[in-house]
Write the structure tokens for this entry.
Amino acid sequence: MSSSGEGPRWIAEKVSWQALLEEGLGRPVVLSWGKSRTSPVVFKDQGHQISLRLNRFFMDAPEEVARDLLAWARNGRRAKKACKRLDAWIAAAIQRLPPKPARALRLRTRGAVHDLEALTAPLIDGVFQSIYGKQFPPPALTWGRRMPRRARHTLRLGSFDRERRLIRIHPVLDQKNVPSWFVAFVLYHEILHDLVPDEEGGSRHHSRRFRELEAAHPDYERALRWEKRNVARLIRDARRLSRHEPDPLGRPYHPSAPMDRRTTAAIVIPRQHELF
Ligand SMILES: [Zn+2]
């Protein structure tokens, strides 16, 4: 849609479509324009008048398409050739549409038990104080979504989306029997991903520098111990938690699925457990 004079052209197109349809159908036509991709044409015969809703891409349609649409409006699927051409034109027009804008991210930092914001605050105001500020705000945080039930042997407790600078924490950690210091450690790990660039080769998400910084955390040892003792239970809990809920970002997000390597990170520790 050109930015110059959408209004006038809209009206102009609307008038010509309207005239063409009314003339062809011999009845008043209430014409409206929409954006639906699933129902680009909605035709209702209301007896005394016809209501027709067309996707806006019909505004740019050549006259042959308008004639085919008219043939379909008059004769339905019996207008075989017209329907075939129309279907093809609609399919191509839908394909040319720009991708749907991603739905706004709904970030949820307050869990039932743990508050990610509160757990991150001491880090942002403490060890990372000199790094984050107005110019470079800390990454966004959210609890991840529950995903479809499926057999799983790995669990990704947290992930960092580099493109969005977004940390997701697995909802399985939002439980009373998960200590808050452990959740805080997972957050610390993910924040490090924001600060330490990935390296090519080997363990590119967890470079030596990354590992050094991670190990500098006072809870490092006990976090690894706690994880080791509890990972089996967490995996079981995650399975129980699972239910189908589409990802709000429209991209696959599954704790145990290999995620987009460009934007996410996962620790893989011995025994094939993806940690965070
Ligand atoms: Zn990681």
